[in-house]
Design goal:
globular; alpha+beta; 173 residues; 8 strands; two-stranded antiparallel sheet
Length: 173
C-alpha cells in the first residue's frame, strides 16, 4: 500500500508540463532566438536580419505612441547605433513561453544627442523588455524601465539634484 501511494505521488507530481515562464518548447526557444537577434541588431546596428523574423504588422508600444511596421524598428535600430555608439547590453535574465519573451536588460553607454527627458551624456538603466510572437514572428514590444533608472536619467535634463529621499529621509542623487 505504501509503495502504491509513493508511486501515485511520483507519477502525479511529475508531468511534462512546463511551469509559467519556464517553457522549453521549440516555439519558445525560437522566440528567444528572435529576441536575441533583435538585441544583437541594436548592439551592432545591423538590421539586415529583422525582415525574416518580424511581422509586417509589428507594433512597438513606446512613450511616443505606437510605432508600427518593420521600417520603424529598423529606424530605431539605426538611431540607437548612430547616437549611442558605445551602448553595452547585458541580458540579466530571460523568460519565455510560446507567445512571450521577457528579458531583464541592463544598458549603459553615452547618448550623444539630448532629447526631451533624456539628456546627452552617460546613461545606466535597467528594463524589462516584453515581446510577443505569433506564427514564428515578432509582433509586439513593450519596454518597462525601472523607476530609479528613469529618475536618475531625468534629473540632469531637468537640472534636478539630490531630490530622492533614502530610507532615512536624507536626500540622495
Amino acid at each position: 500500500m505504501l509503495s502504491a501511494l509513493i508511486a501515485f505521488i511520483c507519477f502525479t507530481g511529475c508531468t511534462n508540463e512546463s511551469k509559467p515562464g519556464t517553457s522549453t518548447t521549440d516555439e519558445a526557444k525560437r522566440n528567444v532566438e528572435i529576441s536575441n537577434l533583435i538585441n544583437e541588431a541594436y548592439r551592432t546596428g545591423d538590421a539586415s536580419k529583422v525582415d525574416s523574423v518580424v511581422s509586417p504588422d509589428y507594433i512597438d508600444h513606446t512613450d511616443r505612441g505606437d510605432m508600427k511596421g518593420i521600417d520603424s524598428l529598423k529606424a530605431g535600430i539605426r538611431w540607437i547605433h548612430e547616437n549611442m555608439r558605445d551602448m553595452k547590453i547585458e541580458l540579466r535574465k530571460q523568460w519565455a513561453d510560446n507567445e512571450y519573451v521577457s528579458s531583464w536588460m541592463h544598458y549603459t553607454g553615452t547618448n550623444s544627442n539630448a532629447m526631451p527627458g533624456f539628456p546627452a551624456g552617460p546613461y545606466d538603466w535597467t528594463t524589462i523588455e516584453l515581446t510577443r510572437y505569433k506564427n514564428g514572428k515578432l509582433v509586439e514590444h513593450w519596454g518597462f524601465m525601472e523607476v530609479q533608472s528613469v529618475v536618475k536619467m531625468m534629473q540632469p535634463a531637468n537640472g534636478i539634484t539630490n531630490t530622492i529621499p533614502d530610507s532615512t529621509g536624507r536626500k540622495v542623487p
